[in-house]
Design a protein that fits this description.
Blueprint lengths: L6 E7 L6 H9 L8 E7 L3 E7 L10 H7 L4 E7 L8 H7 L3 E5 L2 E11 L2 H9 L10 H12 L4 H11 L2 E9 L4 E5 L8 E5 L2 E5 L2 H5 L4 E5 L4 E5 L4 E5 L8 E2 L1 H6 L5 E2 L2 E2 H15 L1 H4 L4 E4 L5 H11 L2 E2 L3 E3 L12 H11 E3 L8 E6 L6 H12 L4 E6 L21 H4 L2 H8 L3 E4 L2 H8 L6 E2 L1 H4 L5 H10 L18
Parallel strand pairs: 14-24, 17-18, 17-21, 21-22, 22-23
Antiparallel strand pairs: 1-4, 1-10, 2-3, 2-4, 5-6, 6-7, 7-8, 8-12, 9-10, 9-11, 12-13, 15-16, 19-20
Helix pairs in contact: 4-5, 5-6, 9-11, 9-16, 12-13
The structure holds iron/sulfur cluster (SF4).
Length: 487
């Protein structure tokens, strides 16, 4: 199971109204993208910041006034985090919580971002060689310090320098020391970022659901390489850098985005249903033998429905997630991780005696979750278990902000379908083909990043690192491999 990454939200009330409740609901709607910490930054004659660990808290109606006093102003940004870089103890989580404020002389900026930087080694060197001491272990601080260094003659110059020099995925929202709101997206547009408006409010959000919840009409996405600057009365859109292609993360469709999010005018749940249908058509020989479809909640539910519609096989929601068990399995040793997964997923005691079961899963990274589920289904009497996976086989690490940055943690790197089935105790593992996956998204192949399934990365350094690391698998701890490999 992969952890969700970060989510950002930003809003400006052009009529001078309080922005806090808009920020709050916009980021609550995206809490699925990060559980480790959350934070708000508003501007009213200066920055006002609040960050804390865990989920965005429930705020009762009568408490909003207190929060508005704590975080006053008509413009602000918000963030939920699941770190893919930096230290992972609680103190570091709090220190790295975003938005982060950095300063250079009298200039200050507050920034929050979703993504991951690839050439962090170079960037760190650039910053620290100027005598600047880093206060956090977060990429956000690096990116915002670089921006500050380069924006002598204006914000756009700083953003341009980031886009030209910093490799990686970054969807950014920020505020400068005049309270100017800005947002920008890396030149390949790897992570999502949308914007919209309603009445006197304009907002930016990682997913469209952040806009929906505030009844803000989506205008569209911030284009790759584009920056939005929210002036006193108007919005300026600047295409800072233009590339031939884009590289939107394919994995967002299978796993990260909420099913009710919209990308390219289509609901993500519709794409997932299509992914399920395609699996049904492609793996007829297994479908013909199956008695029941079961899905791993919740990201595979829509695909299971599509598979059910395609095949007419009964779909039973026999696996349920304990909603409030949100412990982090990734930092545990393998035995502890398995028992945490055991607690997270409840297999209902249905009658599976002698049955052939198709389990629909969104992805297989380490294989722990699927293995646990298969064991539980067998304990309930299932005779044969086929695993249908909506995302193609993950064979390579991701350097762009998904929590799978090493070859050594990927079961799909070491084994083919047959080997994986054996390892996790399935009778067969059936992956979506890359071709079917791309077609289901409705996007052009060259506009998607599918590097973790093909080994072909959309950026130069990531490609070099992957090629180099493949031959050096002794690098296998939790830190980012690209900080340890010379390229
Ligand atoms: S490597 Fe995979 S997970 Fe990472 S950005 Fe590309 S498609 Fe997404």
């Amino acid at each position: 199971m992969v952890k969700e990454k970060c989510g950002v939200y930003a809003a400006k009330c052009f009529d001078g109204g309080d922005v806090f409740s808009n920020l709050y609901w916009g980021i609550v709607a995206q809490n699925h993208r990060g559980h480790e910490s959350y934070g708000f930054l508003t501007f009213s004659e200066g920055f006002r910041r609040y960050v804390d660990l865990g989920l965005v808290p429930r705020i009762e109606r009568e408490e909003f006034l207190r929060w508005k006093i704590l975080l006053p102003g008509s413009v602000g940004i918000a963030h939920v985090r699941y770190g893919t870089s930096g230290k992972r103890d609680l103190y570091s989580h709090l220190k790295d919580a975003q938005p982060i404020i950095t300063a250079k002389g009298r200039k200050r900026i507050g920034m929050a971002y979703n993504g991951n930087l690839v050439n962090v080694g170079w960037l760190k060197e650039e910053i620290t060689s100027k005598g600047i001491k880093l206060k956090t272990t977060s990429d956000t601080e690096l990116l915002s310090r670089y921006l500050l260094e380069k924006c002598e003659s204006g914000l756009i110059d700083g953003i341009r320098a980031c886009m030209e020099d910093v490799e990686g995925a970054y969807s950014v929202v920020g505020l400068d020391s005049n309270g100017t709101l800005f947002a920008f997206r890396d030149p390949l547009g790897m992570r999502p970022l949308f914007y919209g408006s309603e009445g006197s409010v304009m907002a930016v959000s990682s997913e469209s659901v952040g806009l929906n919840i505030n009844e803000i009409r989506m205008i569209g996405e911030i284009e790759p390489g584009e920056a939005l600057i929210f002036g006193k009365e108007s919005l300026e859109r600047v295409r800072v850098v233009k590339r031939e292609r884009r590289a939107f993360c394919g994995f967002e469709f299978s796993y990260f985005m909420r099913p009710d999010s919209v990308v390219n005018g289509r609901f993500v749940y519709k794409i997932r249903e299509d992914l399920g249908r395609r699996l049904g058509r492609r793996y007829r020989e297994f479908v013909d033998r199956a008695d029941v479809i079961i899905s791993i909640p919740e990201t595979a539910d829509d695909a299971a429905y599509g598979l059910h519609e395609e095949t007419g096989i009964r779909w039973e929601r026999m696996l349920r997630r304990h909603r409030f068990v949100t412990h982090r399995a990734f930092i545990m040793d393998p035995a502890e991780r398995v028992s945490t997964i055991d607690r997270k997923i409840n297999v209902l005691n249905g009658n599976l005696q002698g049955k052939t079961v198709i389990v629909v899963e969104d992805s297989i990274v380490r294989g722990d979750t699927t293995k646990t589920v298969i064991r539980k289904l067998r304990e309930s009497g299932a005779e044969k278990v086929y695993i249908f996976v909506t995302f193609p086989r993950i064979t390579h690490p991701c350097f762009y902000g998904i929590d799978m940055a090493t070859f050594s943690e990927l079961i799909g790197f070491f084994y083919d379908e047959r080997g994986i089935a054996e390892k996790i105790g399935a009778d067969a593992v059936c992956y979506q083909t890359i071709e079917d996956f791309v077609e289901a998204t409705g996007m052009r192949r060259e506009d998607l990043c599918m590097a973790c399934t093909t080994g072909t990365y959309p950026t130069e350094l990531a490609q070099k690192i992957a090629d180099r690391v493949k031959t050096r698998l002794e690098v296998k701890d939790g830190s980012r491999i690209y900080e340890r490999v010379e390229v």
